[in-house]
Amino acid sequence: MLMLTLPSLELSVAVPYIPDLFSSLPSIFLCYDMLRDIADTAKALKSLNIGDFVDNLNIFWTPIILFGLSAWLIVKDYSMRPIRCVCPKEYKETWEDVLEADCLRRGGFYVPLNQTIPRTREERQMHRSNLYMWIPYILLLQGLCCLIGKIVWVFFAGKDGMAWKISALKQDDKESYRQFAEYLSKSGHGSWTLYTVFKFINLLNCGVNIGAIYYYSGKLYWIMESAETNRIFPAWKYCDSYSRALGGHIVEHLCPCLHEANAVCAIIFPAVAIWIMTLAAFTFLNIIYWTRLLSKKWRLDRLNRLLGPSKSDDVRMFVYSKTGNLSLDAITGIMLVQIRGGSKPAEEITRIMLENYSASRNCNEVTVDNKKTH
């Protein structure tokens, strides 16, 4: 138990302090319009999601999580009572509200239990803790940064046609499958390059977000600290206030304050940091996985899984032949169709491409034979 002695006041604090993360849930209704806009944005973003699971984590789920946490913290900071101070008995209820508002604005200062409280304002200024005020906006900016890759992908893939064509594919529509197969047979649209750049943008964004967390917090080892010893987001801190006595002289009061918003940030911000670092690792491994498309042997293996062993000889010629149309862009399109719509449409499109290749090869062989005959 920690005993803090104040003028005419004795406070008993139980350690450790566990913040009530759900105390502000009823206030979520106050930002209903904001949450509805976030949901509408999520639907718009998901309409052109043709990437794999890691892509969706980067450009869909992570922004939604960050936007939701930002909205929740804004509600908690501005529509509730994020800080509670134990004031001297001379303070009336109104003055207590003023003190808490002033402490919330200035941030207060944190002093570890094994150190003495600074006496001068200059020394206390060095221990100020007000990062919590910027956390909702930092999370908002991080969520917007996650959308950069999505914007680049939709803009350039829309010009190329890959994203729109995959989104427009209809289930069991042979004609749309045939048109898309003809589109994939044409080389030079750069879909694989664009998709790889898109993944590298996601990885770069993870690095930028980790760097931003380190820049704003100054260190990363606080992730493992408790709310009581956390210097970045201390649950308990002090606020200094001043009042004028009847004789005209100024009296200084030192009030301990329980900062619930800080305690919540001490859980949310490290969780976001761990999430983004984990996401960066998954994205890096995902890039390595997709670069395997450079290997024709791996392309052959993917198509054999789709079509089965009965077509293995034709598929081998399709992949390795110089006249084959299975470019990097084509296999990228087939895999994206499989991710979005399942194996059935991807298999059907691959069969159409293989049939077109076989027909073209037979036609060329007949032409060569006719020339030899004449």
From TrEMBL:
<feature type="transmembrane region" description="Helical">
    <location>
        <begin position="57"/>
        <end position="75"/>
    </location>
</feature>
<keyword id="KW-0406">Ion transport</keyword>
<keyword id="KW-0812">Transmembrane</keyword>
<feature type="transmembrane region" description="Helical">
    <location>
        <begin position="267"/>
        <end position="290"/>
    </location>
</feature>
<protein>
    <recommendedName>
        <fullName>Innexin</fullName>
    </recommendedName>
</protein>
<feature type="transmembrane region" description="Helical">
    <location>
        <begin position="131"/>
        <end position="156"/>
    </location>
</feature>
<keyword id="KW-0965">Cell junction</keyword>
<keyword id="KW-0813">Transport</keyword>
<dbReference type="GO" id="GO:0005921">
    <property type="term" value="C:gap junction"/>
</dbReference>
<comment type="similarity">
    <text>Belongs to the pannexin family.</text>
</comment>
<keyword id="KW-1003">Cell membrane</keyword>
<keyword id="KW-1133">Transmembrane helix</keyword>
<dbReference type="GO" id="GO:0005886">
    <property type="term" value="C:plasma membrane"/>
</dbReference>
<comment type="function">
    <text>Structural component of the gap junctions.</text>
</comment>
<keyword id="KW-0303">Gap junction</keyword>
<dbReference type="GO" id="GO:0034220">
    <property type="term" value="P:monoatomic ion transmembrane transport"/>
</dbReference>
<dbReference type="InterPro" id="IPR000990">
    <property type="entry name" value="Innexin"/>
</dbReference>
<keyword id="KW-0407">Ion channel</keyword>
<keyword id="KW-0472">Membrane</keyword>
<dbReference type="GO" id="GO:0005243">
    <property type="term" value="F:gap junction channel activity"/>
</dbReference>
<dbReference type="Pfam" id="PF00876">
    <property type="entry name" value="Innexin"/>
</dbReference>
